[in-house]
Amino acid sequence: MSNISTLLKENYDLKNELESMVMRVKENEAKHNGFKVVEFSMLLSDNFDDMDNKPMRYIEEIFDIERAVLFLKKDAMAIAQNYNDKCKRIRVIDSDGFSYTFLDSDIRSGTDKSVIHKDFQLMPSDVHYSYILVPVTDNGRIVAALGFYSQDKNRFSSDYNFDFVEEFALIASIALKKLDNAFLLEMQANTDYLTALPNKFIFDLTGKSSFEEFKKNGRNFAFIIFDLNNYKYINDKFGHLAGDEILKIISYTMRCNTGDYDILGRFGGDEFYLFTEITDKNALHDYIVKIQNAVEEIVYEENENIIFGFSGGAVIANERDFESFEDIVRLADTRLYEAKTHTKKENGISIESVIVGI
Question: Most buried by CB count within 10 Å: which residue of 134, 140, 195, 314?
Fold first, then answer.
């Protein structure tokens, strides 16, 4: 009888072991499939919102962890410098944070092989978690880091298999490179090469979309065309290289004095445009005067009494029944010409700025 009991017990133990093995195989298969989903979704992400909502969230679900975070090194990529930290799982970190966390010896020069850390923190709250950090590299240069966080203090122990983390880091590197290249191409297509302001393509796009939004939802806006005073004089007296330098300085000064949601751009030459949602005439007048005063404070040659001002034509979308954005541009252009004819001059040099329309 004891032999039968032993046989039954061994059979029962074997059955449990087999069931456990089958479960582990299924779990590994599910995780393997999950890895592929994360990899594909990361490579197919067109922006950080996609990356935040899909692959990074999938990592949390697959590994049953509280947080998966992609830390971007601020000065490593152009796209990181323009990112405003609006995603839950993607954050921009100053370069010093990476310098303290990942030392030079951690990255093997010329390769994308990296060493994983569990002893440094990129966020103050990391101390409450069991976590690992792995640098994401591009040709041996750190561009980001992946962080995995669990409230289970023993989750990421010394004997944990980290192969999957390094694989994800490689995929993240490829995905970030793709996003950064796309961002740079878009910037080049939409940005004036000299001043780094939006170009005429953005003017057309913004003008049409602003006018459609105004007609559809009544969202009013103002449009201003600027023409710099005395620019020809600068080119003739100091040369075109000096003229380019002046354009850069004036563009930077104007941009520093415009609102975050306003669009200041360059047509070409010494002509600029501005879209703003400030549509009260008094407020718009004060806003333009603020920009004007900042430009007039620029000094290029100490011994030359040159005032860098501008003439301009301003139009508010609801001041007439315009049929198209082109009608607004035509009226702004007419007012610009009127402003230039009223600008006071001394010895051929303009000594004031004039804006017609406000």
Answer: 314
